[in-house]
């Protein structure tokens, strides 16, 4: 009953995207509005309700992503704030863990992009987990959180804090560079070759994408471009290899593809990237992909004009958007 309206709205929006029709948009929005109100009023009274609460939030976010709503991050944040008092992360509930990890990843990636602090820091355990959203990257989530924290502090720093901030950047970059994904025993036997390639690619490109983004928070586009370009080439070549081997990109992969593409200056490669965005992702992401292409075009045109661009200039000069991981 709690999930009915948002599931119906999401299913209708999905079919509308697949078929290219208009559908009953007012009905879908009305159903989602009722679901948002349910989420706002939801007060968990015991831990057994947490999977339902997280599922409701994630279902609403899924609908918002399908229509490319800018409200998606607010819903993610509200859901995580409602869950935070109850949760050590990870939990022992597989459904709740899946919902939580997806929400944490969405929150963390958007906080990285906007230099904010995520709601929840994933705390790794001795148990090695494979997750449907983050694959073998569960223990990379807290490192991404720490990168957000350093970035936020650096963004708010005064001139007197600059030297300390340099050391903070150095520390988090070292932590990222030293990280490597841990695969559980029997990993090769448990998964098909294509799945293993996809998960290993995802781990590699996320690691390089966070390093690349930190580089651009320290140095504007047009400055020390050779370092940014080296990480960009590594990410794009890893994606291309994965596509050749498996026939698709790993998901989620939008965030690494986006930050890598911003570095590209030659027009043939830019055209290849646009072609990949248009043909290598499921149609269900079409609304987000249109925004992603506009974002890339804005940065590429600004770079072609010869001006130096800081990360803050890019983020604040473009319309607020919700970035998919």
Short description:
It is built from 14 helices and no strands. It is mainly alpha-helical and 325 residues long.
Overview of the structural elements:
By secondary structure, this protein is an all-alpha fold. It is 66% helix and 0% strand. It has helices at residues 4-19, 25-41, 50-66, 72-83, 94-114, 141-155, 162-178, 187-190, 193-218, 225-246, 254-261, 267-279, 286-304, 311-317. The longest helix is centred in the middle third of the chain and has 26 residues, at 193-218.
The number of helical segments is: 14
Query: Span from first to last CA?
Result: 30 Å
Low-confidence stretches: none
Using only C-alpha atoms, the radius of gyration works out to 20 Å
The 3D shape can be described as globular
Computed structural class: mainly alpha
Biggest sheet details = none
Order of helices and strands: HHHHHHHHHHHHHH
Strand content: under 5%
Give the total of beta strands.
0
In round numbers, the mean pLDDT is: 87
Fraction of helical residues: 55-70%
């Amino acid at each position: 009953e709690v999930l009915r309206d948002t599931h119906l709205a999401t299913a209708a929006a999905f079919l509308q995207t697949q078929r290219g029709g208009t559908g009953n948009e007012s009905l879908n929005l009305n159903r989602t509005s009722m679901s948002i109100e349910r989420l706002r009023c939801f007060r968990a009274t015991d831990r057994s309700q947490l999977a339902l609460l997280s599922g409701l939030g994630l279902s609403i976010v899924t609908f918002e992503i399908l229509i490319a709503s800018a409200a998606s991050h607010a819903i993610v944040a509200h859901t995580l704030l409602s869950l935070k008092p109850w949760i050590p992360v990870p939990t022992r509930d597989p459904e709740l863990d899946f919902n939580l990890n997806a929400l944490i990843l969405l929150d963390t990636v958007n906080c990285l992009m906007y230099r904010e602090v995520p709601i929840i820091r994933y705390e790794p355990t001795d148990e090695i987990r494979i997750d449907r959203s983050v694959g073998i990257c569960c223990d990379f989530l807290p490192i991404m959180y720490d990168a957000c924290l350093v970035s936020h502090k650096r963004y708010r720093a005064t001139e007197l804090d600059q030297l300390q901030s340099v050391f903070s950047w150095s520390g988090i970059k070292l932590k990222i560079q030293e990280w490597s994904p841990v695969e559980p025993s029997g990993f090769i036997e448990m998964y098909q070759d294509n799945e293993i390639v996809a998960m290993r690619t995802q781990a590699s490109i996320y690691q390089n994408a966070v390093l690349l983004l930190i580089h651009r928070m320290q140095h504007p586009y047009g400055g020390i471009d050779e370092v940014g370009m080296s990480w960009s080439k590594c990410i794009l070549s890893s994606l291309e290899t994965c596509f050749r081997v498996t026939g698709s990109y790993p998901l989620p992969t939008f965030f690494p593809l986006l930050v890598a593409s911003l570095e590209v200056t030659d027009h043939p490669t830019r055209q290849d990237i646009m072609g990949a965005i248009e043909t290598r992702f499921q149609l269900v992401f079409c609304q987000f992909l249109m925004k992603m292409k506009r974002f890339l075009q804005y940065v590429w045109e600004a770079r072609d004009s010869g001006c130096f661009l800081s990360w803050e200039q890019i983020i604040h000069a473009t319309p607020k958007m919700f970035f998919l991981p």
